[in-house]
Amino acid sequence: MNDAKDKYTREWMQLIGGVVKEVIPEGYGFFVFVFPFGDEHGRSNYISNGNREDVIQTMKEFIKRNEHNEDWMTHQDEGGDSG
Length: 83
Fold this sequence. Notes:
The protein has two helices and two strands; from the N terminus they run αββα. The model is unreliable at 78-83 (pLDDT under 50). The chain has one domain (3-67). The protein is 45% helix and 10% strand. By secondary structure, the chain is mainly α. It has a two-stranded antiparallel sheet. The chain has helices spanning 3-23, 52-67, and strands at 31-34, 45-48. The longest helix has 21 residues, at 3-23.
């Protein structure tokens, strides 16, 4: 990416990260992963409220479950029932 795109991406990622942090429940983590389609060099950026190790572990778990098409996330209502 060029410098102008990098600056633009950083600014928007910081804005998005701030909004996500404000609206998710306390005790939850997030990361937003941004990458250019078709990039042969694997460039990417992310913003998170978690530490790097937790983000990496979450990504590993996500990849493992999705590579095998596992149902890794189910909705639970306040009564504790899966939905």
